């Protein structure tokens, strides 16, 4: 999200993937899906600082909190919930919430707080929900459009603010903010300007589809734009386009390309595909669409989840690139945990025994 791709990578590992029951092999590492979830969750529990943040990932606390809430919902592990709550408290403290110097929330921070609200004893009335609701009231009082324009002006490209706006749209919709429609429209307008000249085009696209699917009138016949990449495209056409940016087979099958043209942008230090965050947000977009009876991306989601689990190392760390790891960050772990199966899905996988997937092996 707020991270840029590392410059130098070498192919270090080969991957053979078998979901639930036997192994996910990365070099000498082997984890089942349930083991991967536990390793990643435990890694975030042990890595959390006393202030509730994660060293080197303070700015990504919202995404990590969301992942930990999902891990708690899947496993029922109490320490995952308390760790997420500690992260939520860090968000409130670090932004000065409740004081005269409140800085406001990043989109993923606001969304992370809504996830904490969802698992609270009273989702309709709790301190997490109130914090998010109060934030959007304060933004509305300032002028929501002006606030959004200020967010956009902080970047020289559209993909990163689009990711934040998508989270804002989700959070504003959750609390029923009076200006939730303005946030959703901002996602539409920003997506309409997205091109391969931006930093993370497919990642931003995936985040937008995710937001559309969960807000307002959903993936309806609203036209995105009359020009550009999405000229005359309706929201209900977007999931199919997004699925077309997933690698279908081969070494990196199941991951997502990061550019619309499926190249490395002419830079040999980058791969065209296989990055953790592009796969996370591509999967989230398809997962959101899949909740609509009109769409069925179950196979694509299965493949994306599979490769993301294969990217969890035996210590729980997750790296920038699933097959060609260069650097790790706690944010990657939290984001990966957002895509693991929902509780009912995981139970079905476990009940079904071995689910064999194609092996993925890097030659040379």
Describe, in short, the structure shown.
This protein has 364 residues and is mainly alpha-helical. The chain is built from 14 helices and four strands.
Model description:
The chain has 364 residues and is mainly alpha-helical. It has a single domain (15-356), classed as Glycosyltransferase. The protein has helices spanning 33-47, 61-75, 78-94, 107-118, 127-142, 144-153, 159-175, 180-191, 201-214, 238-243, 276-290, 298-310, 330-337, 343-351; strands spanning 15-19, 24-26, 29-30, 355-356. Strands 3-2-1-4 form a four-stranded antiparallel β-sheet, covered by helices on one side. A hairpin with a 2-residue loop joins strand 2 and strand 3. Helix 2 packs antiparallel against helix 3 (78-94), helix 3 packs across helix 4 (107-118) and helix 7 (159-175) runs antiparallel to helix 8. It is globular and about 50 Å long. Mean pLDDT is 88; it is low at 1-29 and 349-364.
Low-confidence stretches: 1-29, 349-364
Radius of gyration: 19 Å
How many distinct beta strands? 4
What is the CATH level 1 assignment?
Mainly Alpha
- Major pleated sheet: 4 strands, antiparallel
| Number of helical regions | 14
How far apart, in Å, are the first and last alpha carbons? 31 Å
């Amino acid at each position: 999200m707020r991270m840029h791709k590392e410059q130098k990578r070498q192919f270090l590992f080969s991957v053979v993937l078998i979901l639930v029951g036997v192994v996910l092999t990365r070099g000498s590492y082997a984890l089942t899906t349930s083991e991967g979830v536990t390793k990643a969750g435990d890694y975030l529990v042990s890595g959390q600082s006393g202030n509730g943040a994660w060293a080197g990932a303070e700015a990504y606390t919202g995404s990590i909190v969301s992942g930990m809430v999902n891990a708690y919902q899947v496993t029922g592990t109490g320490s995952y919930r308390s760790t997420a709550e500690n992260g939520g408290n860090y968000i409130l403290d670090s932004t000065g919430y409740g004081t005269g110097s409140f800085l406001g929330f990043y989109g993923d921070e606001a969304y992370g707080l809504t996830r904490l609200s969802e698992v609270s004893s009273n989702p309709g009335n709790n301190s997490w929900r109130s914090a998010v609701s109060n934030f959007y009231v304060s933004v509305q009082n300032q002028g929501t459009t002006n606030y959004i324009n200020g967010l956009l002006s902080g970047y020289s490209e559209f993909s990163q603010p689009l990711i934040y706006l998508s989270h804002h749209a989700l959070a504003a919709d959750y609390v029923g903010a009076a200006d939730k429609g303005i946030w959703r429209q901002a996602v539409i307008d920003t997506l309409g300007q997205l091109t391969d000249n931006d930093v993370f085009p497919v990642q931003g696209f995936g985040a937008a589809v995710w937001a559309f699917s969960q807000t307002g009138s959903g993936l309806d016949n609203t036209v995105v734009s009359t020009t550009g990449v999405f000229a005359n495209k309706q929201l209900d056409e977007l999931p199919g386009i997004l699925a077309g940016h997933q690698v279908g087979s081969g070494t990196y099958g199941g991951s997502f390309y990061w550019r619309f043209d499926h190249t490395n942008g002419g830079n040999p230090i980058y791969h065209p595909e296989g990055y953790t965050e592009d796969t996370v947000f591509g999967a989230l977009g398809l997962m959101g669409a899949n909740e609509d009876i009109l769409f069925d991306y179950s196979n694509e989601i299965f493949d994306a989840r599979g490769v993301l689990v294969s990217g969890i190392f035996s210590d729980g760390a997750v790296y920038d690139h699933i097959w060609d790891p260069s650097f790790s960050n706690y944010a990657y772990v939290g984001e990966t945990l957002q895509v693991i199966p929902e509780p009912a899905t995981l139970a079905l996988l476990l009940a079904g025994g071995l689910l064999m997937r194609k092996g993925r092996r890097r030659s040379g």
